TrEMBL record:
The active site is at 97 (electrophile), 170 (proton acceptor). This is Triosephosphate isomerase. HAMAP family: TIM_B. GO terms for molecular function: triose-phosphate isomerase activity. It is found in: Cytoplasm. The lineage of its organism: Bacteria, Pseudomonadati, Thermodesulfobacteriota, Desulfovibrionia, Desulfovibrionales. Substrate binds at residues 8-10, 176, 215, 236-237. Its main location: cytoplasm. Keywords: Cytoplasm, Gluconeogenesis, Glycolysis, Isomerase. It comes from the Bacteria. InterPro entries: Aldolase_TIM, TIM_sf, TrioseP_Isoase_bac/euk, Triosephosphate_isomerase, Triosephosphate_isomerase_AS.
Length: 251
């Protein structure tokens, strides 16, 4: 299975900064990306077209968006439609990132609508799931992941093409905190996610990549992607510098 190394730039970078980072990153990995690796740059809306131009000739490097509204068009001021993302050169989009769930109040059900709508529109979708620290301490990991996965996949038909679906496990307590879940913690969570996918999709679940996100850095990435059921990483802070994300992509 191809490993997916994803960079989420969140609300950082002007267009010029995004172009400079994408250009340097493409130069650093040119001719060096392993055959089993794909890279995803998830840029701010304002930089999508410009970043697309920078990576158009970089093999194995794709563009993604951080969000969209689950409608083809309409009176949704301030929102972006999937077709607009495709037009900008995006191949992927995120849904259910913890910051949108816990800061912007997106419900499990709304996340599910995005996943299904994005897939139907032609985007590869990254469904993000994960627990808060109080939920982990209360032993609620399985319950939280089950609820988020069931809602996140609820509007996708069980017999649908799921080859463009990705799941990212991101323990909320390890995002931007410098903390990283230990190997056993990651293996447990990814094992639960794989189990839930198999219950829904059977053997087809083995085609779905599961990423780990939570303070991934060049010095811990190699160990993380060697854990069972870890098919790549979703990187925040360490992806903002081309040098550090290149080290991760090549780990």
């Amino acid at each position: 299975m191809m490993k997916l190394m994803a960079a989420n730039w969140k609300m950082y970078k002007t267009r010029a900064e995004a172009v400079e980072t994408a250009r340097l990153f493409a130069e650093l990995i040119a001719g060096r990306l392993p055959a089993d690796r794909e890279v995803l740059l998830i840029a701010p809306f304002t930089s999508l077209f410009a970043v697309a131009d920078e990576i158009v000739s970089a093999p194995g490097v794709f563009l993604g968006a951080q969000n969209f509204y689950p409608a083809a068009q309409g009176a949704f001021t301030g929102e972006i439609a999937p077709d607009m993302l495709l037009d900008a050169g995006c191949a992927y989009a995120l849904a259910g990132h913890s910051e949108r769930r816990h800061i912007l109040g997106e419900s499990d059900e709304f996340v599910g609508k995005k996943v299904a709508f994005g897939l139907a529109a032609g985007l590869s979708m990254v469904l993000c799931v994960g627990e808060k620290i109080e939920q982990r301490k209360a032993g609620e990991l399985r319950q939280v992941l089950t609820r988020q996965m069931e809602a996140g996949l609820s509007e996708i038909a069980p017999d649908a093409d799921i080859s463009t679906l990705v799941v990212a496990y991101e323990p909320v307590w390890a995002i931007g905190t410098g903390l990283t879940a230990g190997p056993l913690d990651i293996a447990e969570a990814h094992g639960i996610v794989r189990e839930l996918l198999r219950l829904r999709y059977g053997e087809k679940a083995n085609e779905i990549r599961i990423l780990y996100g939570g303070s991934v850095k060049p010095d811990n990435c190699g160990e993380i992607i060697g854990i069972d059921n870890v098919d790549g990483v979703l990187v925040g802070g360490a992806s903002l510098r081309a040098e550090s994300f290149a080290a991760i992509a090549l780990a």
